[in-house]
């Protein structure tokens, strides 16, 4: 009897241990699925796609794409522009595509887990929009950022861009405007006075998503970058102390070196100044990644 009791106890213990092992194996088998589900949910929550556009060239679309959005969101930057310089001029890593290749870009948008910024040049706007309409592709973009300047044509085309994309089904609350090349600090030149066409449209259409605080100034940075031969990123990250170098070149009578160094020093200072405006504009855009 005692041995039988011990045997029964042993069998019971064996069954208990077996049950525990089975439960543990089940938990281990389920854990990868749980981790995957968590990773997928987190990845999907972080996906965001932004279209930066406008129907007039040289208003600053690439400036906003490369210097305001991409550095703060990260991810991938696509350029759709067959005529003008794109965001590469600012030192950004750019993936160039053709307006007619919207299908391939859509595939990339679906498969990537990173934020995407699409810099759409004015020369390719019509083709791109036609492709969007045919593919019903307005809604995959979380935001549309329309960049305009103070010219009457720039403002009128910004409104035209807005109305065109609205007709394709883009909800009003997904639009953002950047008021570029504004004059800052002039008492008699308030923002709404510099962009009268846009603000007149807003008075007639109260839901028009125009924010007078979302602006960038007319700035000497880009001339300085051209003269120094630097990209914005290079000038912004430049930690060189130029004053003693310039003084040394002057004392040695090396005018060419002194001028070159002075231009780099100016680009360095203007890049730091402009970066503050870029940060301000990003905050006013109120871009909200889902993560």
From TrEMBL:
Residue ranges, annotated region (Disordered): 1-34
Protein name: CobQ/CobB/MinD/ParA nucleotide binding domain-containing protein
Organism of origin: Paraburkholderia tuberum
